[in-house]
Design brief:
The protein contains four helices and four strands, in the order βααββαβα. The protein has 133 residues and is α+β, with helices and mostly antiparallel strands. It has a four-stranded mixed beta sheet with strand order 1-2-3-4. The protein is globular, with a radius of gyration of 15 Å. The N and C termini lie far apart (49 Å).
């Protein structure tokens, strides 16, 4: 039997979606999934790249967040550059931040550099904070 997953859209459109996108029937109630989504985003926003005064969520370093029916939260993320000095520590920071979200049983953080991060991935909030707007 194929594992059912809920995709948490961490890059929502300008108008918030009524609930997170799902990839099929899930055992997690929609209302709970919506709460978990908000809590995951709030937790991701507590993690900062120490060289840039903007959180990793607004920087666009989070590519995908997936919550399966076993409540394993998988985060696909990148760094601003492969040689980032905190490349080894950052996944642990992200894991620690989202591990405390109620309803999440386990966390796995995957580091990827495809596609490579570019400043276009930053939110307007991040660009404003950095004086780019």
């Amino acid at each position: 039997m194929e594992d059912q997953r809920d995709i948490i859209d961490v890059n929502p459109p300008a108008e918030p979606a009524p609930q997170a996108e799902t990839s099929g029937a899930s055992s997690i109630p929609a209302e709970e999934l919506e709460r978990i989504t908000g809590d995951v985003i709030k937790s991701l926003k507590t993690v900062y790249d120490p060289e840039i005064p903007v959180d990793i969520y607004e920087l666009g370093l989070i590519y995908k967040v997936d919550l399966n029916d076993d409540r394993l939260l998988t985060v696909d993320m990148t760094l601003t550059a492969p040689g980032c000095p905190v490349a080894e520590e950052m996944p642990g920071w992200v894991e620690g931040a989202v591990r405390g979200v109620e309803g999440v049983e386990d966390v796995k953080v995957n580091m990827t550099f495809e596609p490579p991060w570019t400043p276009e991935k930053m939110s307007d909030e991040a660009k404003l904070e950095l004086g780019w707007l």
